[in-house]
Amino acid sequence: MHVHHGARRSGAPRVTLLTEGTYPHSHGGVSVWCDQLVTGMPDLDFEVIAVTGTGREPIVWDLPGHVSRVVTVPMWGAAPPGRPPRGRARRLLADAYERFLTALVDPSAEDGFAPALYALAGAARDGLLGPFLRDDAAITILTGVWTRPGLAVREARPTLHDALTATSLLEHALRPLAASPPVEGVAHAVSGGVAALPGLAALERHGVPLLLTEHGVYLRERYLGYRTAPYRWPVKAVVLGFFRLLAEETYRRAALITPGNRYNRLWEEQGGADPASIRTVYNGVDPAAFPPAGPEPEDLTLSWAGRVDPIKDLETLIRAFALVRAQLPDVRLRLFGGTPRGGEGYREGCEALAAELGHAGAVTFEGRVDDIKDAYAAGNVVMLSSISEGFPFTLIEAMSCGRATVSTDVGGVREAVGDAGLVVPPRDPDAMAAAALELLRDPARRRAMGEAARLRVIEQFTLRQTIDTFRSIYHELSAAAEETPARIVLPAPAVTGLGSLTG
User: Fold this and answer.
1) Do 141 and 98 belong together in one domain?
2) Domain count of the chain?
3) Tell me, what's the pLDDT at 489?
4) Element (H or E) spanning 347, and its range?
5) What's the mean pLDDT in 273-291?
6) What is the pLDDT of residue 6?
7) Residue-level pLDDT at 264
8) Most buried of the four, 226, 304, 413, 440, by CB within 10 Å?
9) Cβ-based neighbours of 241, under 8 Å, separated by 6 or more
10) Pick the residue with more confidence: 4 or 202?
11) Residue 97: which of 127, 140, 126 has the closest Cα?
């Protein structure tokens, strides 16, 4: 679906944001970040290629006039239009797909992944890939590949059902290749994975530089998600092989990679990214928009804000809360944030866990709030229990509001908090409860920690720093692309945005 919004302006750099499951169709930290970039740079032209679920998701952000177009790429809606390949085109596509699959399951053939991927991209552009992957021939090719002698996946005895499942998952994952890629400017993938596919196609066809920003480590989150996915190992081997090789290709070909923390940088370097092409750029908030939250609630309260999702590990938070309440029976836990479509079962499971532990009346799911500051002000201590994060907005927003925090040691959390909050291991209810009890029992410490947290945000993590850094990057990449339409590597310091422009 194409939504035309504003008119293009001549002379302004063009930036195409590549998103998945976020801006402009949903709320959440990454969407907030995208909105900050767009609204903070009215002097640039923006477009969005948004990978969504069904394609029926409404646009939930008010788009300014310099967003000229939104292209929606549904992964799970109706199959995109196309026609089956025939004759020589069919034979060439079948050969490319066989090389593609071989790379996913045979370590000695991984060098064939990128050429095969770009051949598939060409077929997707011509409307041939989707119909081919929905044809029996694709199933036959996969069964032939993963039953070759010597491959580890063969030992798991893949079934026809496995082949059908893996082929369907790949067909959906490759749908973004059919989106019309940008032909000029900068393609900015705001996550790794399938969102980067149109950017890779734009680089391959038109020399458009690819900028990659990872808030969380996409590949790590796929590993976590597929750990409990209801698929047999042969299916997981194919799909996770795709995500791993896609991550490596994206790291290798990006003109610049801007992780939101040093933790992500380590994953990217391990995935093959050139250290010279990596520049850490922290998320920022406007301290004036998140002023000190004011008096604490009279009743001792732990608050949490975010998307109700398994990666936020609310089960650990609820179990920790039960341990806290065994010591302080009047404590409450207030949870603020929406539940994504399809996540209702997870929320209901969390509610059932609170009831099972005997604390249903003290744990409240309050949904989205009109002003997120109210969520932080609602707690004496703000909690973060995630098993994976990048550089979480909810954490630095709570810090800007002057609230003491207890957070799990994932992603860039420790970089954000420093000495201005307590950090505990993930999936450890005992450690989380102990930290929460420390702060709930010590008002003076909470107050001092909250003051230190706000000062840390003002000094290091302001929105102005983030906007100025990315504006400079967009101009540099755009200018370099005009001079040399090929892979561009900018010389970059290890970390950008500390100790300057703190207003």
Assistant:
1) yes
2) 3
3) 43
4) helix 344-356
5) 93
6) 54
7) 86
8) 304
9) 103, 104, 105
10) 202
11) 140
- Alpha carbons 29 and 265: distance in angstroms, whole number: 19
Dist CA 473 CA 490 (whole Å): 9
Domain extent, residue 352, equals 301-460
145: closest CA among 106, 191, 192, 196?
Answer: 106
**Same domain assignment for residues 320 and 438:** yes
Q: Identify whether the C-beta of residue 447 lies closer than 8 Å to the C-beta of residue 462.
A: no
Per-residue pLDDT averaged across 433-460, rounded? 97
Domain boundary among 444, 460, 476: 460
Asked if residue 430 and residue 336 are part of one domain, the reply reads yes
- Written as six digits, the tokens of 369 are 């709030």
Contact predicate 226/240, CB 8 Å: yes
Quick one: residue 130, left, alpha or beta (phi over 0 = left, psi -120 to 50 = alpha)? alpha
Return the SS3 of 154. Answer: helix
The length of the chain in residues reads 503
pLDDT score recorded for residue 389: 87
Place of tokens 């079962």: 345
Same domain, 379 and 338: yes
Three-class DSSP category at 55: coil
Integer distance in angstroms from the first to the last C-alpha of the chain? 40
Please report whether residue 359 resides in a domain.
Answer: yes
Q: What is the pLDDT of residue 484?
A: 64
Residue 466 within any structural domain of the chain? no
Last residue of a domain, one of 123, 148, 172: 172
Looking from the CA of 296 toward its CB, the CA atoms found within 13 Å total 22
Rounded to whole angstroms, what are the CA distances from 120 to 126, 188, 296, 304? 10, 22, 57, 43
CB 117 within 8 A of CB 107: no
Spatial separation of the C-alpha atoms in residues 33 and 355, rounded to whole Å: 35
State pLDDT tens for residues 129-165: 999 999 999 999 999 999 999 999 999 999 999 999 9
In a domain, 483, yes or no: no
Output the CA torsion 243→244→245→247 (10° steps). 80
Tell which residue, 228, 234, 103, 220, has the closest CA to residue 161.
Answer: 234
Nearest residue to 445 (alpha-carbon basis) of 296, 291, 285, 288? 296
| Residue of 410, 402, 406 whose CA lies nearest to 386 | 410
